[in-house]
Amino acid sequence: MTSSNTITSSWASLSDRDQDEFDAEEDIEEEAKKLMTSNRDAVLFVIDASSSMLRANQSDEATEIPFRSAVQCASEVMTSKLISDTTTDLIGVVFMGTQKSSNTLQKEHIYVLHSLDSPDIQRVKELNYIASGDVDFDNEYGSTDDEYPIGDVFWVCSELFNKETSKTLKTKRIFLITDQDNPHVSNSVLYSTAITRARVCIFLIFNMSFFEDFS
């Protein structure tokens, strides 16, 4: 009788220990998930679609179209996150200098192709399609050389970041790709407004990187 009680007690002890180990593993996995989501990045690719970005640079030996190269870059970043399983990060793509407009602030010549969201294969396919040049760009988006407030681009980006209310974002960044380093050279008012808005947004919301002569 004593032996039976001892065996039963031993099995119960082992069962409790196994359960404790299982619970510990669950706790570790949960903490790992929290750590992963607490280090998320949010990146917006803002790509200039004005006419100069849609033609090859005649001074270069390369024949790449800067706009297409920039879109391909966004696709590759998204693909790398899919491959490395960092799909908790957020990526968005915005075109500026388009004839058509698509943004909730109803700002002209700004087209939000992808709002901030986790990367997925359908978005990659769409970016690759645009980068290939097979898309009817004039019909889908159009291009304009009309002057528009660059400051509006920063407001649209701010609004996209503000929609992402999660407090687990480690960084919020904009990659601005253009071949124009001074879009308001003859309009001091728009120039001043753009600088002010950029400074406010950088101070309050996100980091910004500029890429010129992209090809």
Question: What order do the helices and strands come in, and which of them pair?
Answer:
Blueprint: H1 2-37, E1 40-48, H2 66-83, E2 90-96, E3 110-117, H3 121-132, H4 137-140, H5 150-163, E4 169-177, H6 188-204, E5 207-211
Parallel strand pairs: 1-2, 1-4, 4-5
Antiparallel strand pairs: 2-3
Helix pairs in contact: 2-3, 5-6
Protein name: Ku70/Ku80 N-terminal alpha/beta domain-containing protein
InterPro entries: Ku_N, vWFA_dom_sf
GO molecular function, one term: double-stranded DNA binding
Gist?
This protein has helices spanning 2-37, 66-83, 121-132, 137-140, 150-163, 188-204, and strands spanning 40-48, 90-96, 110-117, 169-177, 207-211. The chain has 215 residues and is of the alpha/beta class.
Question: Could you characterize what this model shows?
Answer:
This protein has 215 residues and is an alpha/beta fold. The protein folds into two domains: 1-37; 40-211, Rossmann fold (3-Layer(aba) Sandwich), CATH 3.40.50.410. Helices cover 47% and strands 18% of the residues. The protein contains six helices and five strands. It has helices spanning 2-37, 66-83, 121-132, 137-140, 150-163, 188-204; strands spanning 40-48, 90-96, 110-117, 169-177, 207-211. The radius of gyration is 25 Å and the shape is globular. GO terms for molecular function: double-stranded DNA binding; telomeric DNA binding. It holds the Pfam family Ku_N.
